[in-house]
Amino acid sequence: MPVQRRGMRALQIWCQRVTSEYSLVDIKDLSHSFRDGLAFCAIIHHFRPELIPEFHVLKPDNIYDNNDLAYRIAEDTLGIPSLLDPQDMVDTETPDKFSVVTYVSQFYHLFKDEDGSRSPNVSLTNLSRNSESENDSVLQSSSENNTPQGTPTVAPKRIINQSELIEKYGKDIFNSSSNNKTKLSNSNNSVVARMSHELSLKVKIGNEK
Where is the Calponin-homology (CH) domain (predicted)? Predict the structure, then answer.
């Protein structure tokens, strides 16, 4: 498994580990599982329970409020800039994976040395590169799937007709060919006539002897 993919998997495992005691949080991926905002709140509560003392009253249906709470606390208290928007989480069923991964990785780098929750091979740079690589793979796969099998890779040969040759080289290209044939025919006739004349002379000389 590539290093970048191990990093993505390690980040997800880390999130699962620190939220394992929260019954309403079930992290199965790094996209939809974070939509209701409870996963973000659970990560914060796990390490800083005093920041969300009434976590138990949060409901999965309050998508906007949960995300807004997590983003505000993370930015104002933990110094983690808000890269996501609560309304976007409400409007989309599947949040952008790259945005979620980038945001969650900031929590990891802040809390990775606390309570032995560090996961190996998690690098923000590698995670970013991996997300870009996955996008490229999807685009490439889509392009390949949309290309019919047997599509010619070599352009067909161009057929040149008589009118194009006349346009490019003039009518003489065909006239000269006819003239050459006439000249060749006349030349052949002259050779035959000369040979006949020489043969006649030889016969005449032989008769005289």
Answer: 5-112
Q: What is the CATH number of the domain that holds 57?
A: 1.10.418.10
Report DSSP state, residue 84: S
Residues 25 and 66 in one domain: yes
Q: Which residues contact 61 (CB under 8 A, 6 or more apart)?
A: 36
Q: Report the half-sphere exposure of 194 (CA within 13 A, side-chain side).
A: 6
The whole-model pTM stands at: 0.58
How far is the C-alpha of 39 from the C-alpha of 25, rounded, in Å?
6
CA distance linking residue 38 with residue 103, whole number of Å: 14
Residue 55: both structure tokens together:
């976590």
Tell which residue, 20, 13, 10, has the closest CA to residue 42.
20
pLDDT digits (tens, 9 = 90+) for 96-143: 999 999 999 999 999 998 876 665 555 555 554 554 445 444 334 334
DSSP reduced 3-state for 171: coil
Distance of alpha carbon 112 from alpha carbon 117, whole angstroms: 6
